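From the pipeline queue, job 12 of 40. The input is one protein chain; the requested action is below.

Action: predict structure.
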Amino acid sequence: MANAPVQRPLSPHLQIYRLTLSMIMSGVHRITGLALCVGMVVLTWWLLAAATGQNAYATFEVFSTSWIGRLVLFGFSWALIHHLVGGIRYFIWDLGYGLEPEEREWLVLANLITPIILTVLLWAVLVMSGMR
């Protein structure tokens, strides 16, 4: 009996779980958290450049008006809006609403789609208002 295998319960494996939007949202939330970190670096650069002088600000402006700078700023604004909408979702849950599986998945889907729409609208307004 000394060599008998130990009978232990097995943890559920990925093959057992059905992928849900809530699981996907967990990953998206982490990605947007990283995007917020990058965006804060850019925001800090902008503030330091504005405080340092014309040459420093001109360097920042070259970056922020380039396609990569605009992509970073677009991603930063999307991440900010995503976290704002996620906070509203959690507030709704804290109030005791939307906790049933179908309601929860609907709220998560809204948390994925709404920030995209709001970010595109924000940038459309910025472009139409004459942002360089």
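Job complete. The longest helix spans residues 21-52.
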